[in-house]
Amino acid sequence: MAGILKVDQVQSDSNLSFQVAGANVAYMNSTGLQMTGGQIIAGSNTLLTTSGLIYANAGIAFPATQVASADANTLDDYEEGTWTPVCSTTVSSSNGTYVKIGNIVLFSIQCSITSNASGAAFTLSLPFASSSVNASRAAAWFGYTNGGSATPGNTTWLADAGTAQISAYMNNGTNRTNADFNAALYLSGQFRTA
What is the model's pTM? Predict the structure, then answer.
């Protein structure tokens, strides 16, 4: 069945129309390409939009550098990656993975602590700076440590406002120190970026 390409007059605008079996399936005017069925299909890796929904058969690609939108309801960033967390005390190894969806970051950290004598506050670096809004800094949850006094039940983690760092606290709000941790540390959590 042959398709027909024709130019016609619709609503006082000049339109380029596409017909199949005598029915208009699409037309183009000054506002762009309009699909009468609400669908756009392109190539073997189909992008299909219908009734306001978007289906992507081959995934959705975001640019390597975020193009930020001013619209709070627009998803404009997705990223997966790794980084080497910097610890406030001496470690023999340190590894981190993250997934960033919009301004929410999910992360996991593993580090092997070799020296814990210092009384300084215990901190770890994060892959992105956190929000400076207290309600958005989101405490992380403590996974596991096989040494020291900072057990999961009495340790809270909080992303430091406006910085790429997370700190450990006792349940009374005072800082955990380097001396409270030794051996293996595993930490997973989430925070909101600036």
Answer: 0.73
